[in-house]
Amino acid sequence: MQCKLCGSDDVVIIYDGKIRDGRVGNYTSQNVPMYRCRRCKTIWHNFAKSDLKHFYQSDEYRQALEGTADIKAFYRTHDAESFDKFSYTGTACFRDKVVADIGAGGGAFLDYINTVAREVVAIEPTEVYRNAMAQKGYRTYAYAQDALQDWKGKIDVIVSYDVIEHVEEPIAFIQEAYELLSDKGIAYIGTPTDAPVMRELLGEVYTSFLFSTQHPWVLSEDSFRYIADCCHISDYSCKFYQRYGLGNFINWLIQKKPGQHCSYDFVTDSMDKLWKSELEAQKLSDYIVFEFGK
Asked: From start to end of the chain, where are the E strands?
């Protein structure tokens, strides 16, 4: 067995059990081995759909994940997440810039960016979402490779959240994003981590939820360092963010299953901020953003 990313043969199996298959509560019928490379710290599995392009271009992915591909349902689910994404980028970088969202979904984040950007480019494989964004006047493409024909070297800011863990070739994904960037352009690529604290304290009950058939990759800081080297990107950094608060963690400890975001009277804002900041400082958080420029 060799690492699927870097080719190293220093690979171990870190989990061999059922993993989530689509929406919360659905799990595979068979065990799925999760491999980890000791050199680049990448985690992956080999349980893949036979035709990923069809899976993401049709309604199948959204139906499996959320039960519907209806555009209004997408906004109800994802509008609130848009403001959280500004914590990764700030707001100043978007004004009067050409901005592309790779994996834009229904365009919830771009709807906010569009108020200040010079132009927005929506890259999204799901056809029903692409059509909805085209009706708003956004320039739309199924994949970054398609957008390169018109936008190579012209995108000032790229955002892509919760996408790279779905793709077949992460190195090619980053290479295409880099080629889209203009001179002095910047990209923000966000993806979930392996949430080491939650896995350590909750074991299989959390691990089976975290690992997903639709996420063939769990990338690390070392993964991105290797990808940057492959793409000849020298200007890059990785930043860690903890999205879920202390209340969520306590609820997991009590219920042993995912649930609503819970609040407890004794969990003050200061405690919650300390929980998040400590995990981020120790690089043990649940989210990582690979930031790179040209």
From this structure: 11-17, 32-37, 43-44, 98-102, 119-123, 139-141, 155-161, 181-192, 217-218, 236-241, 287-293
Angle separating helix axes 170-180 and 144-151, nearest 10 degrees = 20
Rounded to whole angstroms, what are the CA distances from 31 to 18, 24, 165, 198, 211?
A: 5, 17, 20, 21, 12
pTM exceeds 0.90: yes
Work out the burial of residue 252: count CB atoms within 10 Å of its CB; fewer than 13 is exposed, 13-18 middle, 19 or more buried: buried
Residues 6 or more apart in contact with residue 20 via CB below 8 angstroms: 26, 27, 28, 208, 209, 210, 211, 212, 213
Residues 6+ apart with CB under 8 A from 278: none
Instruction: Supply 70's token pair.
Output: 């209806």
Q: What is the rounded distance in angstroms from the CA atom of residue 212 to the CA atom of residue 276?
A: 24
Judge whether 198 lies within some domain. no
Over its C-alpha atoms, the chain yields an Rg (Å, rounded) of 19
Which residues lie below 8 Å from residue 233, measured CB to CB, with a gap of 6+? 174, 178, 227, 292
Q: What is the mean pLDDT of residues 266-293?
A: 97
Q: Is residue 280 part of a domain?
A: no
Beta strand 119-123 pairing with 98-102:
parallel
Residue 202 lies in a domain: no
Q: Which domain holds residue 88?
A: 50-192
Q: What percent of the chain has pLDDT over 90?
A: 83
User: Is the CA virtual torsion 126, 129, 135, 141 positive or negative?
Assistant: negative
223-233 residue pLDDT tens: 999 999 999 99
